[in-house]
Structure formats: structure tokens, C-alpha cells
Amino acid sequence: MAFQAGGQRSQPRPVPESPEARAYLRDYAMLLEAVPFPSVVFDHRWDVVLANTAFEALFRGVGPHPTAMPGDNFLRFVLFHPEAGTVLGEHESSWCLPMLAHFAAAVERHGHDQGLQAIRREIAQDPIMEAAYRQGLPHWIRAVGSHAMEHDGAVRPLLHPDPRWGGDCRVVGETPKTLEAMGYSKLTLVLREARRPAPAGRGPRRTRRTTGHLSVVPVQPE
Questions:
Q1: What are the CA-CA distances from residue 14 to residues 9, 10, 40, 44, 48 (Å)?
Q2: pLDDT on residue 212
Q3: Does residue 42 come out as left (phi exceeding 0), alpha (psi in the -120 to 50 range) or beta?
Q4: Which end of the chain has a smaller Cβ tally under 10 Å, C or N?
Q5: What is the pLDDT of residue 87?
Q6: What whole-number distance in Å separates Cα of residue 102 and Cα of residue 150?
Q7: Which of 94, 54, 57 minimizes the C-alpha distance to 78?
Q8: Could you tell me the pTM of the whole model?
Q9: How many Å apart are CA 142 and CA 101, to the nearest integer?
Q10: How far is CA 91 from CA 9, 30, 186, in A?
């Protein structure tokens, strides 16, 4: 089983206490590795438990970050990594806002979880992201509907480093009962073949955030 490289994890990878559960995860890791599309298993904090080689390949060009590598915590990667937009197309509207909505729901369910509270504090440290979380997110949900929050079935822009793959993916959430009982969830990004190759010397336009995290929601005046 391949895990995301790029630096030491800030927190130990979550491991179930039961030997039976650990054995199940070992076998499930083999199954996950046979999936040709990027696939990841994570807990309620979005700490990554398992990720296959296709997942690693998708993010192989992402630079190191102390707390927001995609193979460590996928939520932190989406929200805080300055290069997330180089892989996740239309990063703010298609990825950040849905993930913020899922984070808000997780805080409601696990309000005292220290890992989630740490992410909440980090959101609060960025005025633009805090405005998005407190003010922009409810407005966005009312405007687009609650269905936009769902990952399963969503088609979202994706910029794969391999030119064989097209400019979006189908997000599929499929969590077996055994994984669900452990408190884990699974997502697979079903890639689509590119309709035509990119011109020589040119690839998909990629953006890198240099300051702040979000720009779709302006900071409200005090």
C-alpha cells in the first residue's frame, strides 16, 4: 500500500485497536491498490487511513507542507495547501466550499474533537476563510442547494498531471459497512479520458495561491 510522500506527518496515522480491524484494513489496502482511480479512506477528521498509488500519482507534483499534505489530511490539503488549486480545478467554488460545509457538519457531530478544533482555529486565523465559513457558506448553501454539499456523484474539475486524463472527475462515495463501523469513509475520483491531447509545451492552466486561502467571499467590514 502506498501512502503520500512529502514530509513527516504532524500526527500519527489513525490505527484501529482491534487486531481484526487492522487485519481488515490490510486486506482492504490490497483491494484499494487494485483500483485504477485515486481512492482514499479517511476518518471523521479527514485524517487519511489508506490511499492508493493512483491517489499519490494525482498529487505527485504538490510541494511539501508541514500540516496540509493530501495523504495526511485531505481536508487540510483542500483548505490550507497553497498549491491545492494546481490539482483541484475551480478550487474555491468546487472544492473549498463543499469541504467547509462537511467540516461544519463534522464540528456539529464531534464538537469536542481536538483535531477538528485545531482546524477550526486555523480557519479563524485567516480573515477571508473565516468570513467564508461564518457568512459565505450559509449564503452559498441557500443559493446552490444542499445537494451541492454532497461529494458522492459530484462532477468536479480536476487537473491531473498525466495528460491522458481529462479536466474533471466523478466523485464516488462508497463506504463498506465494516469501514463505516470503524468511523471511516471512502472516496474515489473516477477520472475521464482527455478528449484530445494538450498542445506540445502547454498543459492545463494551473493556479497557485500565494496569499490568503479564499477570494470568493470578501472580508466583511467591521
A1: 11, 12, 14, 11, 8
A2: 47
A3: beta
A4: C
A5: 97
A6: 8
A7: 94
A8: 0.82
A9: 12
A10: 24, 31, 21
User: What 3-state DSSP class applies to 83?
Assistant: coil
The pLDDT value recorded for residue 9 is: 45
Helices 137-144/97-109 angle, 10° precision: 110
What's the CA gap between 82 and 86, in Å, rounded?
Answer: 9
Q: Assess contact for 78 and 122: CB atoms under 8 A.
A: no
Q: What does pLDDT average to in each consecutive run of 10 residues of the chain (222 residues)?
A: 38 73 94 96 94 96 95 96 96 91 91 92 94 88 75 92 93 94 95 73 49 48 44
Whole-angstrom Cα distance, residue 118 to residue 80?
Answer: 13
First-to-last C-alpha distance (Å) of the chain? 50
Residues 144-187 have pLDDT tens digits of 776 766 788 899 999 999 999 989 999 999 999 999 999 999 99
In this structure, are residues 216 and 132 in contact, taking their beta carbons and an 8 Å threshold? yes
Comparing CA positions, the residue from 148, 128, 116 lying closest to residue 209 is: 128
CA 41 to chain centre: 11
Instruction: Answer for the pair 69, 4: CB distance below 8 angstroms, yes or no.
Output: yes
